[in-house]
């Protein structure tokens, strides 16, 4: 499989702040990759670097094998509508829908029209008068209808109601199946997108802390619940990501349980449940933070 | 999931002229701001000028009215300030937007400069044409000078030249100043205007201490309007180049 994005020792400094701090990763062509992380973790800076909007302080970026900076050959295959995208003064939705096809050669006008209707986006309304959800759907529609070989969705769920969120989910999967391409979904609302993702990148404080396939991650942690005594005995020799105690009951999130481990847990009278991607990332991020705090 | 397979992404060299042309189309997609609004304001100024001309005509004796000359040359100045604002917004708003359409800075800049040159020529032709009619109709029959103020040459070609060059000056200056902001934000603005003020005060001081003000005055008088305006081509060209060099390393941020 070829890589759509290859990043090597990438750093972006703003004065003393390292918004992106010496990271390396690859994203394969034809996958849906989640770029997850907290607010201010460096997601937007990273995407601006990947799309040639910002300049690296150090390291290299290859998009379809070439640097994206001022490179029209690469950039014409890329679509990135920022969550906080600025639009020209007094632009209306229809101006966006008219101009987008000039810049994206795979643009599907019929699909765009259908989406505009489904998201109930008023074509004649000024962009600055749109609600937060409507603004998000402008970005979603451009991202979907442009069919760019590399499409970024930046916080696509921001302000969208439940119906619109489901609609985005359905249309993305449908269209991705018909027209495979590389999709990067950036969000801090992890549970909303977790079922879409094939690969997960978690960025925290400018560094990549998780870079794994979604399947691996889903199977990687298990929560065991039982009496404190039983849980503690079982967890003793294992890697504990998180521990909760309520009265005499204890719940522990454990890393990487083998089938044998699971049998042992059931035999010890413990209840097993899977851990959602969101929970896993929260546990991993917070355990990492406490480790850093300890070492500091 | 599906039988459709991923077609490998092949990078083909895009058509440079097409890309630049698309940037020009992007500037013109919302015609309200770039065309409708300035001419609507101009129409209003025109109507008010005619009204004042009519009031003067009614209140004066025919002999006195024949001597009257209502100068509204300032109406033309409004267009120039409007162009400055237009250029600032092109960099400040359309540039970040074009980046989301994956337009390179180079294509954006070339497309924008060409759009503005085209706009300058088109508007100047229209203004010169209106000035010509104004001359023929004795100021729209009301002795009103709006498009053909007294200080303009009677030579239409020279008038067209002066108008185009003034338009270009205000547009390119606006682009360069906005590019300073896009590159270095508020700090850039403060330093830029600080340095500009120092240079202007320094030049004034130089002229004062060397007692060269009369020479400066003579130079402007000798150059005439057309000559002085022609000289603005130098700062216009510098601004055009500087704007590109600044924008080439600028990052759109919110």
Q: Can you summarize this structure?
A:
The complex is a heterodimer of chains A (296) and B (254). Chain A is of the alpha/beta class.
Describe the structure.
The complex is a heterodimer of chains A (about 300) and B (about 250). Chain A has about 300 residues and is α/β, with parallel strands linked by helices. Chain A contains eleven helices and 13 strands. In chain A, the strands form three sheets. In chain A, strands 5-6-7-3-8-9 form a six-stranded mixed β-sheet, with helices on both faces. In chain A, a hairpin with a 2-residue loop joins strand 1 (about 5-15) and strand 2 (about 15-30). The two termini of chain A are about 40 Å apart. By secondary structure, chain B is an all-alpha fold. Chain B has helices at about 15-30, 30-60, 60-65, 75-100, 105-135, 140-145, 155-210, 215-230, 235-245, and strands at about 70, 145. A two-stranded parallel sheet of chain B has the order 1-2. The two termini of chain B are about 40 Å apart. The model of chain B has no long low-confidence stretch (mean pLDDT about 90). The interface of A and B includes residues 52, 64, 89 and 103 of A.
Helix content of chain B: over 70%
**How far apart are the first and last residues' alpha carbons of chain A, in Å?**
40 Å
Mean pLDDT of chain A: 91
- Count all strands of chain A and give the number: 13
Q: What would you call the quaternary organization?
A: heterodimer
User: H/E series of chain A, N to C?
Assistant: EEEHEHEHHHEHEHEEHEHEEHEH
Q: What is the structural class of chain B?
A: mainly alpha
In which order are the strands of the major sheet of chain B placed? 1-2
Q: Report the biggest beta sheet of chain B as strand number plus sense, adding barrel if it closes.
A: 2 strands, parallel
- The strand order across the widest sheet of chain A is 5-6-7-3-8-9
Give the H and E element order of chain B.
Answer: HHHEHHHEHHH
Q: How much of the residues of chain A is beta strand, in percent? A: 25-35%
């Amino acid at each position: 499989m070829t890589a759509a994005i290859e990043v090597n020792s990438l750093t972006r400094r703003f004065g003393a702040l390292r918004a992106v701090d010496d990271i390396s990763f690859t994203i394969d062509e034809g996958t849906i990759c989640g770029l997850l992380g907290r607010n201010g973790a460096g997601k937007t800076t990273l995407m601006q670097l990947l799309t040639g909007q910002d300049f690296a302080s150090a390291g290299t970026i290859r998009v379809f094998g070439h640097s994206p900076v001022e490179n029209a050959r690469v950039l014409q295959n890329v679509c990135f509508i920022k969550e906080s995208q600025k639009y020209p003064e007094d632009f209306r939705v229809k101006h966006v829908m008219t101009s987008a096809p000039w810049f994206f050669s795979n643009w599907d006008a019929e699909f765009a029209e259908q989406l505009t209707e489904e998201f109930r986006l008023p074509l004649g309304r000024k962009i600055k008068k749109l609600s937060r959800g409507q603004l998000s759907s402008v970005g979603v529609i451009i991202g979907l209808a442009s069919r760019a070989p590399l499409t970024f969705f930046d916080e696509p769920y921001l302000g969208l109601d439940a119906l619109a969120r489901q609609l985005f989910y359905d249309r993305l999967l449908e269209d991705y199946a018909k027209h495979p391409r590389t999709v990067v979904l950036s969000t801090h609302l992890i549970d909303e997108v977790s079922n879409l993702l094939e690969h997960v990148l978690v960025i925290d404080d400018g560094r990549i802390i998780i870079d794994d396939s979604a399947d691996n991650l889903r199977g990687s942690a298990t929560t065991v619940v039982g009496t404190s005594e039983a849980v503690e005995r079982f967890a003793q020799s294992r890697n504990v990501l998180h521990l909760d105690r309520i009265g005499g009951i204890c719940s522990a999130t454990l890393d990487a349980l083998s089938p044998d481990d699971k049998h042992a847990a059931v035999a010890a009278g413990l209840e097993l449940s899977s851990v959602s991607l969101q929970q896993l990332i929260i546990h991993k991020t917070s355990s990492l933070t406490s480790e850093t705090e300890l070492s500091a | 999931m599906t039988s459709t397979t991923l077609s490998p992404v092949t990078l083909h060299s895009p058509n440079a002229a097409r890309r630049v042309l698309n940037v020009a189309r992007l500037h013109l997609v919302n015609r309200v701001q770039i065309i409708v609004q300035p001419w609507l304001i101009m129409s209003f100024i025109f109507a008010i000028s005619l009204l004042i001309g009519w009031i003067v005509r009614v209140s004066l004796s025919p002999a006195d009215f024949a001597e009257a000359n209502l100068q509204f040359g300032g109406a033309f100045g409004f267009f120039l300030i409007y162009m400055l604002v237009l250029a600032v917004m092109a960099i400040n708003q359309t540039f970040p937007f074009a980046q989301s359409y994956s337009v390179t800075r180079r294509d954006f800049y070339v497309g924008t400069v060409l759009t503005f040159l085209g706009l300058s020529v088109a508007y100047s032709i229209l203004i010169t044409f209106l000035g010509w009619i104004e001359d023929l109709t004795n100021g729209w029959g009301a002795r009103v000078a709006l498009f053909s103020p007294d200080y303009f040459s009677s030579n239409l070609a020279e008038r067209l030249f002066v108008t185009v060059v003034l338009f270009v000056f205000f547009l390119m200056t606006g682009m360069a100043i906005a590019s300073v902001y896009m590159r270095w934000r508020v700090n850039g603005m403060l330093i830029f205007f600080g340095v500009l003020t120092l240079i202007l005060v320094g030049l004034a001081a130089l002229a004062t201490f060397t007692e060269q003000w009369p020479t400066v005055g003579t130079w402007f008088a000798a150059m005439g309007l057309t000559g002085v305006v022609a000289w603005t081509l130098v700062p216009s060209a510098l601004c055009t180049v500087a704007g590109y060099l600044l924008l080439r390393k600028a990052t759109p941020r919110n």
